[in-house]
């Protein structure tokens, strides 16, 4: 009877399992196969030509590809650090009783609901050196216009600011939920011991919510590495290749150069690196 | 037992549903065999992929007339130009018959021909049963030439354009300037107006966004200073004094007298700034003339002068004005009857009478038919710049941008390098050498 139930259960699970294999494992294996081939839609009628590890060798000798790795890492570090810092700062500030706390919380998370393409377009208008609010304020203070998206030194910062604006609320949301669940005993004990407000935050609250911060950082890291939409509408990877992340470069290689084999290789390397880094981070998080 | 049967049945249904979902939905329009004598293609249906453009909108409105005349039903799918090349190539490389005919620029034609993606039209042109609308002699010669590869015709020129200099006559009069004919004069005019207005009006605006946009306008300076793209061996040849000099002039103009934010200016941004009176000059597509003279679009109607693109030196290989043509190409994998029906539509759509009519349906000055250009409708509608446009077409350079199979990759790489030149103007020669070496060793192997 027990065996019968088990086989029935298996039969019900089977379609979902087959679906998962078809949409996840098969494409992944197929992607590996593509990386081993030269597939250019403008050569040999787009046919597969066996290339072995050539695409991987090309990646490591392609200065633009390596630059895209650097840009991705810079963006990741910049966005993640700023979002974490402001996330902690704002949520600890809001971690008290005051009127309209619920409304403030609701307003803070509004940017999160915006589609990245829309926020990218809005911020592109904000950064516009002629009519943008950012340039206008900068001009009031420094008496000359600011073209943040037009300079190699500031374009990436502009993208980091947009990401920060949109995703710091996510950090705030998670950290605030975690702070709400903290036991008051430890805080009270610290107060009795004469700890200042800052000491309570840095020595008591933050250590206690560390696993949450860590998890939020990991989720944000995955998203920050995946960023594409905002870059596509704001800079298209420029000026030069100053904001060309791995995702963006992979898109260019695939859909401008039509070198599908090489584009898949870039995405594949990207996926592998991200998976390894994040699994290591998760292991560390689990040990906390 | 019942449970087991039920579970197997359910599993079977779900799996078969999934597999059925993965199946191909089949090909393009139906090809009926039932045509009558005067309408041999009656009942045939063709699918045409078009780019978002005034001409496509006009075809959408006029396709009924073609259907009435031939019995061929035309399904037009119009998508933004930026998305079109990818969609076309994915469809072509899969040998898909989803589209019987596609519209695209002539830059891609060599690649299509090399890969047998598009059909040669010579046999159809020679076939008296099909060629009633096709009139090769009526096309602007340069446009038609760009539809040919190795002397064979592969496309119908739908629309085309050249580039010319647009300048503000009122500002030029105010500052006592004449339309520039050399690059030195161009720079002098830009400087005078920029300084005279304390930078409130940019001396010149040009597209600076990396990719095709910057390549498109920079070409005027490459060719205008005596440079070219390829040497006699077909290798990229931008590591030259002429190319460096031209690029320096291009960067100097924009950095010193250009508008703020030009590094992100594509066609749209550049056009809008000029139309709103934010710049004294621009070099761009002739189609912009129609926008400058449209009271609904422009603040500078009647204030714009049009002139050929200036040049620093006489370049025997080609001039500083671009020539761009967009055409219809027939998918090579579809059946003969579909190809013939597509040929009929392509030749009807680019026929003089149709093109003349199109101008009344949509604002469209890029017509490819000489008769349409000479028509009263064209002269009436585009009198302000029509003659200058025709002059620009006469001297436009078909080699202005690369048109080989690797064109897209070269344009992207050169465009990225130029974008870098604009913001790091100290080492223009180094940046051009780097992209030149990269393309020659990795793309044109």
Overview of this protein structure:
The complex is a heterodimer of chains A (288) and B (445). By secondary structure, chain A is an all-alpha fold. Chain A is built from 13 helices and two strands, in the order H-E-E-H-H-H-H-H-H-H-H-H-H-H-H. Chain A has a single domain, classed as Orthogonal Bundle (MetI-like fold), CATH 1.10.3720. In chain A, strands 1-2 form a two-stranded antiparallel ribbon. The longest helix of chain A has 34 residues. The mean pLDDT of chain A is 90. Helix content of chain B is 47%, strand content 12%. The interface between A and B is large, with 44 and 45 residues.
Secondary-structure blueprint:
The complex is a heterodimer of chains A (288) and B (445).
Chain A: H1 2-35, E1 37-38, E2 49-50, H2 54-61, H3 63-94, H4 101-108, H5 116-126, H6 133-142, H7 155-180, H8 184-192, H9 197-208, H10 210-226, H11 229-234, H12 246-255, H13 260-287
Antiparallel strand pairs in A: 1-2
Chain B: H1 2-22, E1 45-51, H2 54-70, E2 73-79, H3 84-93, E3 101-105, H4 109-114, H5 122-126, H6 141-145, E4 148-149, E5 152-153, E6 155-168, H7 169-174, H8 183-196, H9 212-224, H10 241-257, H11 267-275, E7 281-285, H12 287-292, E8 304-307, E9 323-330, H13 336-349, H14 352-361, H15 370-374, H16 376-381, H17 386-395, H18 407-423, H19 428-443
Parallel strand pairs in B: 1-2, 1-3
Antiparallel strand pairs in B: 3-9, 4-5, 6-7, 6-8, 6-9
Helix pairs in contact in B: 8-10, 9-10, 9-18, 10-18, 18-19
